Amino acid sequence: MTIRDFGTLARLWYDLEAAGIPLEPLEKRVGIDTRNRGSALTIRAGRDRWRSVIRELRNGLFAYILPVFVRRDRPGKTIIRDSRISPPWMDTEIELLGDPEEEGQHPDWYTFPGDTEHFFREKVVNHRVNCNLFHGDIREGFLLAVGVRPPETCKDHDVITVTYTVLDQWDCEHSAKMQMRMNRRPTRVETSPESKRGDLNSRLESRCRGLREWADRFDAKDDSA
C-alpha cells in the first residue's frame, strides 16, 4: 500500500527509528547483492608478509604459510563461505589446516604434520576466515595449508605468485595475487651399498694395520730381551 500522506510517513519513520529499527538506504541493508557494483572486499597480503613461504616438510609435503588481510569496505554484509590458495601449478591440491580444537590437537596452536613449528591460534585465520563481515570488519593473520611437491622447476628461494580467493554468499569470487618464497630442504645424497662396504673394508684394514704394528713392537721387545 502506497502512503501519500508524508506527515504520516514521517511519523512512521520516527516511530521505527525510536523503536531501534533503522531505515537505511537499500545499498546499506545487510545482505544486499553487490555482484554488479564492484567488489566490496579488500584482499591483500597481511602485515607479516615477510613470512610468506612455501616450506618443504620432513615428510615430503609442503607447508603454505600465507599472511592475508581481508576487509569489508562497503555497507552491508559479506558471508565468506570458502577460501583457497591456488599456486601456478593448478593440478596441485592445497588443503587448509583444520581447527586444532576440532582436530583433537593442542587447542592453543596450529602445527603442520610431522613438524615442530607452532603457530598461535590467535595469529591464524583458518578457523576465522569463513565468517560474516560487516562494514569495516577485517580478518588478518596466517592462512596455513598443506600441498604436495611443487614442480622441480620451482627452485629454492624462488618467488612464487599464488592466488588467494574467497567465495561469498552470491557465489562470487574475490581474489588477489600474493607472493611466496620457496624453501626446499637440501637434497640428501644416498649412500650406496658399495660405499658402505668400502667404509667397512677401510675400518677392517685400519684395525689389521694397528694389530700388525702392535705385533711388531711386541717382537722387537722380545729381540731386545
Task: Summarize it.
With 225 residues, this protein is α+β, with helices and mostly antiparallel strands. 22% of the residues lie in helices and 30% in strands. Strands 1, 2, 3, 5, 6, 10, 11 and 12 form an 8-stranded mixed β-sheet that branches. The chain has a two-stranded antiparallel ribbon with strand order 4-9. It has a two-stranded antiparallel sheet with strand order 7-8.
Can you characterise this structure?
The protein is an alpha+beta fold. It has a domain of 156 residues: Immunoglobulins (Immunoglobulin-like), CATH 2.60.40. The protein is 22% helix and 30% strand. It is built from three helices and twelve strands. The strands form three sheets. Strands 1, 2, 3, 5, 6, 10, 11 and 12 form an eight-stranded mixed sheet that branches. A two-stranded antiparallel sheet has the order 4-9. Strands 7-8 form a two-stranded antiparallel sheet. A hairpin with a 5-residue loop joins strand 11 and strand 12. The radius of gyration is 32 Å and the shape is elongated. It starts with 5 loop residues before the first helix and ends with a helix. 17% of the residues are buried. About 2% of the residues have low confidence.
